Amino acid sequence: MALARDPLNIIICGVGGQGNILASELVGSAAVAAGFLTTIGETYGASQRGGSVMSHVRLSRQLQYGPLIPKGEADVIVGFEPLEVLRVFRIYGNSDTHVILNSRPNYPLGTLIGESKYPEIAQILNEIGRVAARVQVVEATELAKQAGSAVSTNVLMVGCLAGSGLVPIDVVHYEEVLKQRFEGAALELNQKVFEMGVQAFPQV
Amino acid sequence: MQSVLTINEPGTQVLMMGNEAITRGALEAGVQFCSSYPGSPSAEILSFMAATAKTFGHYAEWSTNEIVAIEAATAASFAGLRALCIMKQNGANVAADFLMSLGLSGCRGGLVVVFADDPESHSSTNEFDSRNLARWAELPLLEPGNFQEAKDMTKWAFELSEQTQTPVIIRSVTRICHGRGNVVLGDFLPKKPANKLGQWDKLIALNPFHPYTHQKLAKIREIFETSPFNTYTGPENPELLILTSGTGGFYSQEAVSRLGVADRVGVLKLGTTCPLPAKLVKSYLEKCPRVLVVEEVDPFLEHNVMVLAAQKEMLVKFFGKASGHIKGPGGPGTGELNPDVVMDGLSAVLGVARPSRNDVVVDPEKDIAIPARDLTFCAGCPHRASFFATKNALEIDGRQGVVMGDIGCYTLGGAKAGHFLLSSLFCMGGGIGMASGMGKLEQFGFNQPVLAMAGDSTFFHACLPGLVNARWNNSKMLFLILDNEATAMTGFQPHPGTGQTAMGEKGAPFSIEGICQAMGADVYIADPYDVAATTEKIYELIQQPGVKVLILRRTCALVQSRRGPKPKVWVDQEKCLGDACGCGRFCSKVFGCPACIWDAAAGKARIDEVVCNGCGVCASLCPQGAIQLEGRD
């Protein structure tokens, strides 16, 4: 399948510990299986300790692109945490950017100790929605909890991306990658939440 | 399960992390001995080597520190085996004493040393450019610029090393190590058995060999002149030549394409950067004497090519770091490269418009002020409790005790998460050495309590000489060892104190208290989760003369959470008095655990059960006893 834009630039963002790296690896592996030249840039290490994290995933039919997306050139942003989506959108977003966002906040230390205030979710959605091509909100953590574990929120969000029609990778490629990556109960849970993600937004 | 490291299907295309690609390259080369000390961004390589050791029959060890790691790997090379040693840029400094001699001695079996640099210091205290060290040590240097090269160069480096009897440095960076991309797999080469060392088989690093080292480097330079790792893309006679290495190749290609100047600009990407393939570079300078040098972090290639141009009496116009065209927000020679830095530089040199799709306009008056997300300890981290107890003890003492910091997760304690408690921060083991000196300043009127803090893995890596020094010279100080039974920051690798080796062999764990006692220090142990008792112990020990050691022992919360179900912590909102309590939201505002959140609707404290790891320290701190804990030891 062809790309609407080449390279197609996807950012997966959230807070250290939410499973960014696994999510981008699943998307990237599915993309390679679908025949794309794929490059991922990751945040590891210190930032994983409660900091802002993002993975840049770049798909191309022509070139092995670098691991970082230029400012303002994200085509899709998949966010595990609202504030982090806004932070990333301001730097990497544009009026063609599609946003898929988990609505559950994760509070920064500064907001807990009262130095700063966590904004209302509606404010965040308003600001992104003012510019972005489309914003889709999913209660991913709640859905993942209902399915068995909040830990699988990341895979559910990958399902949302796979089902969104924004990335031309057949869903079977993701399903294959899940089977390679997991076994037993973990595989069952992840297959279940992935499917929930795929179905999260009925296609128009 | 089969993995991208083990499948024997040459020609197959897979997605690989850079560290996987380096590992795969060494496996394809038939590596036999691997050693390392964990550091980001290189830590995964040795973990992958350990995980595949049984399949391939090689040996992999976590060494106590990097200089021991390179010594051990060199021994294997001496016996004719192929050996791989991996370290981050700081580790290269630790290993430097030995590395500086390796050029003199040379090697036997292929010896490849990976330096993994961290431009922008994502997980480091600095962004040293280790290429300088390779040049200083007079060892050949390869720089992979993508994931395929990370694999292929590593494989070839063993061949080059054996052919020239010279250890080879591969310099990678965070964006290669921790990036991922397409890699086509190759075949696995056979391994050779170890040699018997005869009486006259010697590996000696002494200065009379220095001229010979230079002869070998001249030969390596000739090999580099025709290396396929040096590639050129662009017109026959470009008006501007981009000279680049490493990740610079990615960003240069993208900048040329994005600016639409592919017919005007050529990109010469060097994979073999030192010794510089002078004839090759000169041939391009002759075609195009306008050069933009794109590299990270230091102007390493830039300076070497400037010297070349001067030697050859060529008139070349250089753009790059010296001219200020390649620079991030911190100025030239700081921070990592990215496509924006290179596009900005290229558009300025050519005088063409810089394209941008960013049409997000932020109104600072009306739009949200995004709160910063400070790095902090994980929920349940014993370090949060250790720092809280230390802060309390120093406040009660009232003499403004100073805490010398060290390298590990607890480095974050120097920031908000640890109440800005650390007064100094340098390198692995730097804290105990400084405390040893500071504890001798009483005769000059310095009367503040002196403390040092280090983790368990750091203790074995670099703290032993400092502690010997402190006790020998009778310094007055308290050494806090934050023993969480893991090398947590880099991914929970084992260390001597865990008793387990990289390959999973179990042996007798080293006793930290036993070692400290053998050094003649008074040793005490406390559980940081018991904040009251820990505070009291720290207060008591800083009143006393001599070297005291207090081990704050509690397993890393992440390690613990992987061992089984998490203990349950919740707020009994009937008991929580909210803002009427007078505690000032002690659990969230003062203790600052990310799981202790505020339920604005109820006006009471709440535990975020998704984030909480069940340490229960907040339960012990709540003045109303409103926080409940169930199921913890």
Describe, in plain words, how this protein is organized in 3D.
- The complex is a heterodimer of chains A (204) and B (633).
- By secondary structure, chain A is α/β, with parallel strands linked by helices.
- Chain A is built from eight helices and six strands, in the order βαβββαβααβαααα.
- In chain A, helix 7 runs antiparallel to helix 8.
- Chain A is globular.
- Chain B is α/β, with parallel strands linked by helices.
- Chain B folds into four domains: 202 residues, Thiamin diphosphate (ThDP)-binding fold, Pyr/PP domains (Rossmann fold), CATH 3.40.50.970; 120 residues, Rossmann fold; 172 residues, Thiamin diphosphate (ThDP)-binding fold, Pyr/PP domains (Rossmann fold, 3-Layer(aba) Sandwich), CATH 3.40.50; 66 residues, Alpha-Beta Plaits, CATH 3.30.70.20.
- Chain B is built from 22 helices and 24 strands.
- Chain B is globular and about 80 Å long.
- The model of chain B has no long low-confidence stretch (mean pLDDT 96).
- The interface between A and B is large, with 69 and 66 residues.
- Strand 2 of chain A pairs antiparallel with strand 8 of chain B.
What's a quick, concise take on this entry?
By secondary structure, chain A is α/β, with parallel strands linked by helices. Chain A contains eight helices and six strands; from the N terminus they run E-H-E-E-E-H-E-H-H-E-H-H-H-H.
Instruction: Name the CATH architecture of chain A.
Output: 3-Layer(aba) Sandwich
In the CATH hierarchy, the third-tier topology of chain A is known as Pyruvate-ferredoxin Oxidoreductase, domain 3
Overall form of chain A: globular
Fraction in helix of chain B:
25-40%
At the fourth level of CATH, the homologous superfamily of chain A is Pyruvate-ferredoxin oxidoreductase, PFOR, domain III
Number of domains of chain B: 4
Q: Please report the first level of CATH classification, the CATH class of the largest domain in chain B.
A: Alpha Beta
> Low-confidence parts of chain B, pLDDT < 50 over ≥5 residues?
none
State the distance separating the first and last CA atoms of chain A: 20 Å
Helix count from the secondary structure assignment of chain B: 22
Q: How many whole angstroms does the radius of gyration of chain A measure?
A: 16 Å
Biggest sheet statistics of chain A: 6 strands, mixed
Tally of strands of chain B? 24
The CATH architecture of the largest domain in chain B comes to: 3-Layer(aba) Sandwich
- Indicate the proportion of strand residues of chain B: 15-25%
